[in-house]
Design goal:
Blueprint: H1 17-24, H2 28-40, H3 47-54, E1 59-63, H4 69-76, E2 80-85, H5 88-97, E3 103-105, E4 117-122, H6 126-129, H7 135-144, E5 146-157, H8 165-174, E6 177-183, E7 197-204, H9 210-218, H10 226-234, E8 239-243, H11 247-253, E9 260-261, H12 267-271, E10 288-292, H13 298-308, E11 314-316, H14 320-326
């Protein structure tokens, strides 16, 4: 088995030191072959797909899909499934096996996918291998990618001195997810307190929430990724990049070169010519405007507002200024 050199792995700060330690011991081809050998020996290796299929989803997100074993099996059963993982090598292995399926390299804590799902599956020990400080963010972000009434189905080992089941339930509750069922295995063996593994099914509220408000706004937008915005600006496209962050954030972190600062609190007033206080950048209602906030949420709501008051080409930056920074793109120091 060929083990992975550290130079081949993403920075531990991006994933987690624990994940990097595990990946040093794994050869991706052998990792896949192990499950193939188990299947050939008569072992049932599709318990996860069996449980997921029994819940009758129409669109599934496999969060932490790895090399795609489960996502590919779910798709084989006629279910629309997308796989996402931060490990680009594992995603590449999945895509090589099933090139027609959608595979995404992204961070579960910060991704902003252009669609939502009625079931999100997290079958691996994702919550144990991620950064501890990202755990609540991951649960919250998965909740944002669920349709009203959608299900979050997760299974991972229970560690007495690590991430506890109580913490998982608390993070789910804080994100509007209610426990529906819990098992000891993917084969639905009864869960017993004190066990070392759980499979939990949480349901998102049917209530119209802030997540639905954001999704509704984004349904009107042609959002730009940091790479796409950077390319458009380098190409000389006529784009007004409007930074809506607070001044304190601009002073601390800088801004996108060539952007204009218009605080979110006065954005509509400063852009609508009918207000009497509009900026010259908004003189042409057909102007392509890209809004930038910290993380790409308030900017989506604001861009939808601008479209409503006559700026049809208003949109926003996926992931906000934080995503621009993570991409290593140019930053202008604050004046």
């Amino acid at each position: 088995m060929r083990r992975v050199d550290d130079a081949e792995l993403p920075n531990a700060a991006v994933v987690s030191p624990r994940w990097v330690q595990w990946r040093r011991t794994i050869d991706i081809a052998d990792y896949d072959a192990r499950f193939e050998r188990l299947a050939a020996s008569g072992k049932d290796v599709h318990g996860e797909a069996d449980l997921i299929e029994s819940l009758h989803p129409t669109a599934v997100l496999d969060a932490g899909c790895g090399t795609g074993r489960i996502a590919i099996e779910i798709a084989r059963r006629g279910i629309d499934v997308t796989g996402v993982d931060l490990d680009a090598d594992m995603v590449a292995a999945a895509a090589a096996k099933a090139p027609a399926q959608p595979w995404i390299v992204d961070d579960l804590a910060r991704m902003q996918l252009p669609r939502r799902f009625d079931l999100i599956a997290m079958p691996g020990n994702v919550m144990l291998f991620c950064q501890p400080l990202d755990r609540r963010l991951i649960v919250h972000n998965l909740g944002q990618h669920l349709l009203p009434g959608g299900l979050l189905v997760a299974g991972f080992s229970i560690e007495r001195d690590g991430y506890s089941l109580a913490q998982w339930d608390a993070h789910c509750a804080a994100s509007g997810l209610t426990l529906q069922a819990r098992y000891a295995t993917w084969n639905r063996d009864p869960f017993v307190e004190g066990g070392d593994y759980h499979v939990s099914i949480h349901r998102r509220t049917e209530r119209f929430t802030v997540h639905d408000l954001v999704a509704e706004a984004r349904g009107r937008l042609q959002r730009l990724t940091p790479a796409a915005l950077h390319a458009a600006m380098r190409n000389g496209d006529q784009i007004a990049v409007v930074d809506t962050r607070q001044a304190i954030d601009l002073h601390a972190l800088g801004s996108i070169p060539g952007s204009f600062h218009v605080p979110r609190t006065v954005l509509e007033w400063r852009l609508d010519p009918a207000s009497g206080y509009s900026e010259p950048i908004a003189a042409d209602p057909a102007q392509r405007i890209v809004l930038v906030c910290n993380d790409g949420y308030s900017s989506s709501l604001a861009a939808a507002n601008l479209q409503r008051i006559g700026f049809p080409n208003a949109t926003d930056l996926v992931g906000g200024f934080a995503a621009w920074r993570r991409a290593g793109l140019p930053i202008a120091p604050s004046a």
